[in-house]
Amino acid sequence: MQDEKTFQLAQKLWDYLCLHQDIKVSDCILVLGSHDTSVAERAADIFLEGFAPLVVFSGGFGYLTQDSWKVSEAETFAEIAIKKGVPESAIILERKSTNTGENVIFSMQLLKERHISPSSFILVHKPYMERRTYATFRNHFKEVPITVTSPQISMSDYLSRGTISYETFLDTLAGDLYRIKTYSSKGFQIPQEIPEDVWKAYTELVALGFDKRIN
């Protein structure tokens, strides 16, 4: 159940975690898997608009899909894209990754194995995963041109879809902000400056008990 206090705290984190970049025509669309199938729809839309000739769907089973999905995130996303008009010949599947870092590393390894060398990428993920996606990719590939995008939706509308519970959403936002803070020291992401008001909102959410994804 939503309340005004937690909603405003979440909005502060959401606004920081979303990058709102303008995408550029690129060689490849790399789609990071999750429970949110609207990410696949966004990827299909930008492919059909001519932003790139190739789509890599990456994802095995993650935190929110491992107990409920029988088909990998990559295959599920690809099926959605094909139904929207993306040809199978333009799709590559990476089915083993279980987190953002593996999404990037395994996908790039797969492209290399197939002797495909895109010089630029559009990365597609959930709105609140844009910053982490950027920071993770840039940690491993510092010079490759990238832009990041996600389903074009407000936080309020995102929540109204009911894809995940409000409490899980708050736990997830807090967890993602925690990873922005800590993952650079672990070698997983490039450092990202966190504004003081954003960190304050994070600490308030954690104090309210939304700490299930802090690890």
Report on the architecture of this protein.
- The protein is globular.
- The chain is built from eight helices and five strands, in the order αβαβαβαβαβααα.
- With 215 residues, it is α/β, with parallel strands linked by helices.
- The protein has two domains: 4-15 and 155-207, no CATH class; 19-149, HUPs (Rossmann fold, 3-Layer(aba) Sandwich).
- α1 (4-17) packs across α7.
- The protein has a five-stranded parallel sheet with strand order 3-2-1-4-5, sandwiched between helices.
- It is 45% helix and 10% strand.
- The model has no long low-confidence stretch (mean pLDDT 94).
- This is YdcF family protein.
- InterPro entries: Cell_Envelope_Assoc, DUF218, Rossmann-like_a/b/a_fold.
- It holds the Pfam family DUF218.
- Residues 27-148 form the DUF218 domain.
Please outline what is shown here.
This protein has helices spanning 4-17, 38-48, 73-83, 100-113, 130-140, 155-160, 166-182, 196-207; strands spanning 28-32, 55-58, 91-94, 121-124, 146-149.
Percentage of residues in DSSP E strands: 5-15%
Number of helices: 8
CATH architecture of the largest domain: 3-Layer(aba) Sandwich
Task: Report the count of strand segments.
Answer: 5
Strand order of the largest sheet: 3-2-1-4-5
CATH class (first level) name of the largest domain: Alpha Beta
Instruction: Tell me the Rg in angstroms.
Output: 17 Å
Protein name: YdcF family protein
Organism: Chitinophaga filiformis
Domain DUF218: 27-148
InterPro entries: Cell_Envelope_Assoc, DUF218, Rossmann-like_a/b/a_fold
